[in-house]
Amino acid sequence: MTTIFERDNGAENEYLGECEVSYKLDNKYCRDKKLKLPGVSEGELCRHYTQLADNTYGVNNGFYPLGSCTMKYNPKINEKVAALEGFSDIHPLQPKSTTSGAAEAINLLSKYLCEILGMDSVTLQPAAGAHGEFLGLLLMKAYHADRNDAKRNKIIVPDSAHGTNPASAVMTGFEIVNIPSAKDGMTDIDKLKEAVGEDTAGLMLTNPNTLGLFDKNILKITDIVHKAGGLTYCDGANQNAIMGVARPGDMGFDIVHVNLHKTFSTPHGGGGPGSGPVGCKSFLSKYLPEGECSIGRVKAFYGNFLVAVKALCYITSLGCDGLLSASQIAVLNANYVMSKLSGLFETVGDGYCMHEFVITLEKLKSETGINALSFAKALLDEGIHPPTMYFPLIVPEALMIEPTETESKKRLDDAIEIFKDLYNRAKAGEDMHNAPKRTYVSRVNEVAAARNPIVKA
């Protein structure tokens, strides 16, 4: 594929007039020479972006079962609503009297999220889930500091946690205490009791967890942490399985973030935009960015506002019954696929899963040499985006599969047959180490790419 610079034919557009806003920068910030930009005609520009789209795989192209990411179809009505002039053509510094509709949308979404999550207050500022984690941990730090409890400097994190959890804790100045999972994939209660103490600032937990399992001991877990004087944080990345069924606030969590770009169908991937609103109980509300004892802003103005508008559209379109149905179908789809694959693949955990499940290809690798990476690459040749690979880290040769509620039974059946066919082909001796072979980009040397990256044309 040619780059936009290779399409440069010296053309100039006449659509954009002189900018009405100007500002004289200090010369030290100015370029010494003119910026090199390609000059292309409208036709060539359209061809360029159309070709980029043709070479990109997304939920509009086919099955996208990326675990813990909820890559579900985004209703187009969300885009239409977000494109309304009253939302898309405003500026946060306008007089409040001219943006009352946008303010009402923010307040309404905040109210709905509080109800769905079982929280008392919410901020829409965080731009992603990890950003929400960061803010939630700052709330913990402010709470303990306000009580002159400086000794609380440790965050407990299960070994199956999302990788951003310990990273966020370190960024906010906490130390990490890692606890192992029990044999059933749940939090090890005995290990948790050993870990808590006077230095415990809080616990970060995903429920349902990254094995796709709902922790049946969740009330006992949050109670143990609270009795030790710590706070509890719910990583809300997996709310797609429980919205309308269970609420983090009712499980004993003090703080939670939720990914609008996962659970509430706003576009996901491609680097954003995302949104990770944080909710909290009333005793922590004053520390939110908008509170009287604010920890400070984490994002300009109101966060990624148009993402919030799309989420509000999704919630109001579905209503209470629709949100409940979405979760129920997500869980049903995951259990259907898991049950159909369990005859060949080894699944992790006992009984039913929630919105996702994990399989291990450890045995297949030992018998055939085909590991999770090669199997996932082979799925690309069959028109399926691979599941999440090698996560959670506690499962060898893991593939984490999340079908989502927006996939039909026929689509699931087709995917199930492809998984089974690839498994049987691997067992029959087919070499998948060079897969994929029919995609726009074939198998790349990942080691070479990591050591010698080409980051510019």
Folded structure, characterized:
This protein is an alpha/beta fold and 457 residues long. The protein is 36% helix and 10% strand. It has a seven-stranded mixed β-sheet with strand order 1-7-6-5-4-2-3, with helices on both faces. A four-stranded antiparallel β-sheet has the order 8-9-11-10, covered by helices on one side. Helix 4 packs parallel to helix 9, helix 5 packs across helix 6 and helix 9 (305-341) crosses helix 12. The radius of gyration is 24 Å and the shape is globular.
Layout: helices, strands, pairs:
Elements: H1 42-54, H2 76-82, H3 85-88, H4 100-117, E1 121-123, H5 129-146, E2 154-158, H6 164-171, E3 175-179, H7 189-195, E4 200-206, H8 218-227, E5 231-236, E6 255-258, E7 278-280, H9 305-341, E8 346-347, E9 357-360, H10 362-368, H11 372-381, E10 388-389, E11 398-401, H12 409-427, H13 446-451
**Secondary-structure-derived class:** alpha/beta
Strand and helix order: HHHHEHEHEHEHEEEHEEHHEEHH
Strand content: 5-15%
Give start-end ranges of low-pLDDT stretches.
Answer: none
Sequence of strands across the biggest β-sheet: 1-7-6-5-4-2-3
Helix content: 25-40%
Keywords:
457 residues, alpha/beta, Aspartate Aminotransferase, domain 2, Aspartate Aminotransferase, domain 1, 2 domains, 7-stranded mixed sheet, 4-stranded antiparallel sheet, 13 helices, globular
Task: Describe the structure concisely.
With 457 residues, this protein is of the alpha/beta class. 36% of the residues lie in helices and 10% in strands.
